[in-house]
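fyi for ur records
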Amino acid sequence: MSSTNEVDSTRPPSCVGGLKVVEGRCDTCVFSKASPVRSGRLRRLAQSWQRQDTHQVCHQFPVAAEGDDGEETGMLDGENVVCGGFFDNVYLVRGTGQLLRIAERFGGFEYVPAPTIHEMSQRTEEES
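which gave:
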């Protein structure tokens, strides 16, 4: 997926080895106009993030595991990858996400590009 938004200048600087965050938004990000997620579902997600003080993982990264709540988790090289739209629209605005607050204090964030369509199709072929 191509990154439709550049890194926001209000973001903390990138730090190699920090918590991975998508540097922009993929074309189907739940925070984009092309989101396949309906507003009611997005509202329920937002309530869940707030209630659990957690964050949204990027849905474009391969699903490596299921969390305790049965939700799929996005991983890159065994590491959690935070949705860029969530980071800009929820974390930087409201501070929601305990792991992100801890990461900002101790290790920072490493901004990574969203996977391209080619990378996603290769992974799908490899899994078949």
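The chain has a mean pLDDT of 78. thats all i got for now
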